[in-house]
Each structure stands twice: as C-alpha cells, then as structure tokens.
Amino acid sequence: MSQNEAQRLVHIRSLATQLGQALQEAGWTLSTAESCTGGGIAAAVTDIAGSSAWFHQGWVTYSNAAKHSLLGVEEATLIAHGAVSEAVVRQMAEGARLRSGAQLALAVSGIAGPGGGSEAKPVGTVWLAWAQPGNVETVCCHFPGDRITVRQRAIQRALEEALRCLASVPRLRQLDLSDVAQATALWTVQQAAYRVEAGWLGVSDFPPLRASVADLQACGEQVLGCYLDEVLVAAVGWESPAPRQRAINRLVVHPDHFRKGLARRLLQWVLRDQQRVYVTTGLANQAAIAAYRQAGFVLDGTMTHPDGIALQQLRYVADNAAASDDELNRPADLAGQEQES
User: Fold this and answer.
1) Which long-range contacts does 94-100 make (Cβ < 8 Å, 24+ apart)?
2) Low-confidence residues of the chain, pLDDT below 50?
3) What positions does the domain N-acetyltransferase occupy (predicted)?
C-alpha cells in the first residue's frame, strides 16, 4: 500500500467517525447504494464501533438488473442515460432511502477502470447522490489515478458531502455549563426566548430574565442543546429527583427558530425511557401548554409564583408506569440529582 493510499484510508475513517457522530446528534440513520465502490462506503462506516446505532443497511448493485430490481431504478432511465449518470444515481439514492426508511441515503455509480471508459465518460467518472426527505443532491466527479485511487476518492467525497448535508439538520448534544462559552450561548438563547414569553404573560419583570451566566453555571442541571450550523438555537434543562424521573426547569427556543419543531424534538429526547416527567410554565402561555399536552403531558394543578405570576403544572406518565395518586405528585425535593451514565 502506498503512503497516499494509507493517508486516504486514515482520512476516510475520520470522516466516517464524524458522520456517525453527526447522524446520532441529528437522530438520523444512513443507508447506501453502491456500484463502482463495491460496498466500500458501507465498509467504511461499519468499521466504526457503534455504527449499528446509525447505519441502517447497504446495497451493492453492480449490474443494471440489480439497480432495477433492488432499488427501483427505471429500465428506461438505464437505457436512455446509462448506469453512470445523474438520472440513475438519483434514483438509486432515493430508492435506497425509501426502501430502508433511513433519513439519509448515499449512492454512487462510476467507472473505476482500468477499462470501461469512453470519450463521453472516461475512466474516473463517478456520479454521486445524497437523498434526504424532500431533496436529492447530485455531483459528477472526475478522479485521476488507478482503480484503487478512484474508488477511495469516491468514498471520501461521498462521506464529505454527507457531512455537508447534515450541517443544516438540527443536532442534539449535551452542554457543559462549566464551559463559559457554552453557558453564555445558553444564556443568549434563554434571554431571547424569555423576553418573548414575558410579553405573552404581560409581565415587565420576568424572574427567568434575571438569571446570569454565573447562575446558569451553578444551576446543577443537565442541559441538552439543539444546534443548527453549529450555533445553539434551543435547549432543555432538567434535574432527576429519582430514577427514571425528570423535572424540566427550562425549555427555550430562540425566537428566530420558532415553529421548526425544535422544542418537540428536545421533549422527545427528555421523555425517552422515563416513567414520569414534570414541568411548570406560565398559565397564560397557552402555546407552551398546548405543546406539552401534545407531547403527552396532562394538567396537574396551578400555583402562583412569589412574584405573582400564575403557573400551570403539568406531568407526563409513561403508559407502562402504573402508579398511585401519591406517586404521581410532583417531587418536592429536587436536590438529589441523578447523573446520566
């Protein structure tokens, strides 16, 4: 193996690792449909430990018959454009996505050589496609080099473009509030969100707006952030008073990103594997109450904040959590925070 080949393989592994992390943060899965790379993309991603969490399945459709029967590429398209074409690779990607149920599918078809090329499609011509819900992107590449080099470069480009596709997909990751930059980013989102809520509640002095960055760093909560293009745009913070219980203390979305489903996505994550979850919001914040109820919360009484703001309590109980009325009461002591493993 040449030094260049070895360096490309190291880079491919790094890209596959990054792609796996991005897919997990997005809550997406990946499928592949390959021709000239012969399963090389699938091999690269499944070489990463834990890839079963985000890789769905792959097809190696080397023949036209396989492209048609396994991925649904139209015979007329194959005849009119040839296997190495935008039209075919587009149908390969979309066929893989629809058949697997994955949110992202990669497809590749090309001429790796040393034979098989033509004046119109010389050796090294590779078409790639990336399909996601509502969109398919394609690119034609001309890679120099021998057969191994062409295949490696096709795999590398497929992974690079997959990462680019995911850049605009909301991605979830834990925040470390001991990091001043992360705490400041949360404070910025929270200030913008709570100013809007203060307007809805009709209050000029809204207690959450008094919180400082230092207060956030000392809050002791676990916080999950939602990022778009590496910018924090929404977050949820909670404490765990008992095993499989959570008390949500903040759920904030920057006003520039309202109505994008970000709060719903964060709530789905917080509710996962929990028996009971509790939250309190302003009684006049009917939008928030409706969102919680849509997520499965039920009304659980009202109370008044010392500042005079009327609050609505809500609780979520999992379907399999049989509990008495006493067990369903909001925990009074939130001091004993259970750390996630």
Assistant:
1) 94/131, 94/136, 95/33, 95/70, 95/71, 96/31, 96/32, 96/33, 96/59, 96/71, 96/131, 97/31, 97/131, 97/132, 98/72, 99/31, 99/71, 99/72, 100/29, 100/31, 100/56, 100/57
2) 322-341
3) 170-318
